[in-house]
Amino acid sequence: xxxxxxxxxxxxxxxxxxxxxxxxxxxxxxxxxxxxxxxxxxxxxxxxxxxxxxxxxxxxxxxxxxxxxxxxxxxxxxxxxxxxxxxxxxxxxxxxxxxxxxxxxxxxxxxxxxxxxxxxxxxxxxxxxxxxxxxxxxxxxxxxxxxxxxxxxxxxxxxxxxxxxxxxxxxxxxxxxxxxxxxxxxxxxxxxxxxxxxxxxxxxxxxxxxxxxxxxxxxxxxxxxxxxxxxxxxxxxxxxxxxxxxxxxxxxxxxxxxxxxxxxxxxxxxxxxxxxxxxxxxxxxxxxxxxxxxxxxxxxxxxxxxxxxxxxxxxxxxxxxxxxxxxxxxxxxxxxxxxxxxxxxxxxxxxxxxxxxxxxxxxxxxxxxxxxxxxxxxxx
Length: 380
Ligand SMILES: [Zn+2]
Description:
The protein is an alpha+beta fold. Helices cover about 30% and strands about 25% of the residues. A hairpin with a 2-residue loop joins strand 1 and strand 2 (about 50-60). Helix 3 packs across helix 9. The mean pLDDT is about 95. Bound molecules: zinc ion. Zinc ion binds near residues 138 and 167.
């Protein structure tokens, strides 16, 4: 049997700050192989990005294949002096297990493994398979991770029927919230080009700054929608603004601003770009706009998969999680193109912070919830 607390500690003691793996996947693979998983590793490379190690593990050969997905990479420790413990020491103090990645999301990965091991031991010959899809590139550029891993295993004939991502979804307590969708994310850069000159001779220059200000106003006033049954309203935020470097007596040559749009399931990224261009065009000011899409919005409508999480939480904790689409993006944005996907993991209060930690009781609780999900899933 896998002890999820010991496995969480072993994973935290591998300082796998993206793109480093530091042996984290080896620790996980050894634990999974001991309970019968067949493991495959995939190193992906791409020009200009670091090589990343990934793991796909499967227990059983039958369909349906229920997949747990996640990442072993972690964000940097940040302000080391702000930590009261060694961020990679995995100490347990007063019932809390401390360490970078405890909440996001090494404990959840240990819970995947322990729940799968427990379930398989109690249900030999269960009608299906359990798999783990684990990347080392979620907190980084996400180029050599989940997206390529999904493509690679599909090319090898693997099919995933349903997927549960173990991101920390609970704002305060285990059982608060599961995520059934995510907003999309789009980054834009608007540039207005003028003519640089002396501030005392403005008729010999063309100042781009006030023109950009007018365009920014159009962006800020743009109402994309008012939200829908499952999502809050889409939102655009200005994230940066600057002009060409100069001095107090120089009219700048160019001015530009960056913005980010978090958009709901009312729109594709193409819709958002069209609406943004339409708003900017109304000023009749020449501008240049470049757009980068980080992910499309998606929704797994409440149904069988969300019902499994809700029922499992009720059975184990006596509470029903809210089904939400709030928060940032996750690798679920890639998985949604393959199968229905839902996210449920640890409490998120300390993720990415100093003194990141999870309650030991929650590690046991989440293991039981995942085990209950498997039991109900394979009971049909
Ligand atoms: Zn995460």
